[in-house]
Write a structure and sequence with these properties.
Elements: H1 7-21, E1 28-32, H2 34-43, E2 51-55, H3 66-72, H4 77-87, E3 92-95, H5 99-110, E4 121-128, E5 131-136, H6 146-164, E6 170-174, H7 185-195, E7 202-207, H8 210-214, E8 219-221, H9 224-249, H10 253-273, E9 281-284, E10 289-292, H11 299-314, H12 317-343
Parallel strand pairs: 1-2, 3-10, 5-8, 6-7, 6-8
Antiparallel strand pairs: 4-5, 4-9, 9-10
């Protein structure tokens, strides 16, 4: 019921998912106003063999504060959808609704997979020159210590394998330089832990900002403050270049003729950087699968968010992450003991 368009895009997104990815073995539980959802199902030629409607007239508003949503949100479409994952009735939840509320209610109901994680990490699937790189965190955790950065690496590596099909993904830590002495303490400590070889991760080392677009590594780890600034900068730059290109191609007759000739290549480029193609940011670190869709996503974009949820649900993502998070706790304990012995 959330997002900019409510059931009209969510139900059409199911149709788009089925048309593009098949949908065999996938059934949808639609939480919200039954009359509104039923009307959209009829419009999109979906029936009860594809979807089950769980009615509620209670909705978390897009501008509702997370604390209010947690206090008054019980019984809402968002609350009930997350509760279905908690109970095992559903394997994953996809929502275009209020991001803060979704994160708060998910954390409340599903709990965190590791005690050190303050809140779920948001991962962005970033188009690059080599394909798609997973970047996390991009806004959920403003500051992160070394252990949390290592946990992001574990979750990002498992996500890249499950959703983007990358075998043995390479992982890098975002820094202001590739030299080991650069960066603040948290970054250098995380680097040392990942470099130790105690985790089954293909660690590359430090990467810089320009390595994101190059696709130097498959997974880039950073704190949410830096990740969000990088993401917003990239989005703004892409829009700026797109506007410049559009103006240039309309600047005269020769430019318009050139645009017609180059149209197939331009469309291919547009598809690669289209947000709909990479829509669907999972909240990683929860004891359950929650995928956030852009609030203004198209039906195609919402369909891709569904694909992300299905791919994660069909993978060993949760069990793989759980096993490796336990190893991180042991590593931190070993490092603490070693430090005490050194001081003594």
């Amino acid at each position: 019921m959330g997002g900019d368009h409510g059931p009209s895009v969510v139900v059409a997104g199911i149709k788009a998912y089925r048309a593009r990815f098949g949908g065999e073995g996938v059934h949808f539980l639609l939480h919200g106003d039954e009359a509104a959802i039923r009307a959209e199902m009829e419009r999109n030629a979906l029936n009860d063999t594809h979807c089950t409607i769980i009615h509620t007239d209670k909705v978390v508003a897009m501008d509702e504060k997370p604390a209010t949503a947690m206090r008054r949100g019980k019984g809402s479409s968002m609350w009930n959808a997350i509760e279905a994952v908690k109970s095992g009735e559903a394997h994953a939840v996809v929502s275009a609704g209020n991001t803060g509320a979704l994160m708060a209610i998910s954390k409340l109901q599903l709990r965190m997979a590791a005690a050190s994680l303050e809140r779920p990490a948001i991962v962005a699937s970033w188009p690059t020159m080599r394909g798609t790189t997973s970047v996390l965190d991009v806004g959920a955790n403003i500051g992160s210590d070394a252990k949390q950065l290592v946990e992001f690496a574990i979750m990002g590596e498992a996500f890249q394998s499950a959703v983007h099909g990358t075998k043995n993904p390479t992982v890098g830590v975002l820094n202001i330089g590739s030299e080991e002495m650069k960066g603040h303490d948290e970054v250098r400590e995380a680097h040392a832990m990942l470099k130790s070889g105690q985790l089954p991760i293909n660690y590359y080392g430090f990467v810089e900002g320009d390595d994101i677009g190059k696709g130097t590594v498959d997974v880039i780890v950073t704190d949410g403050f830096t990740g969000n600034v990088a993401l917003k900068t990239a989005e703004g730059t892409a829009r700026f270049i797109g506007a410049l290109l559009k103006d240039a191609l309309k600047s005269g007759l020769q430019s318009k003729i050139g645009a017609l000739i180059a149209m197939p290549a331009l469309k291919q480029m547009s598809r690669k950087i289209d947000p709909a193609a990479v829509n669907g940011g999972p909240l990683l670190g929860l004891n359950g699968l929650v995928v956030k869709s852009h609030g203004g996503a198209t039906a195609e974009g919402f369909g891709n968010a569904i694909r992300v949820a299905v791919d994660l649900a069909r993978s060993d993502y949760l069990s793989k992450v759980s096993a490796n998070l336990g190893r991180v706790a042991d590593m931190v304990d070993d490092l603490a003991k070693a430090e005490v012995e050194t001081n003594e």
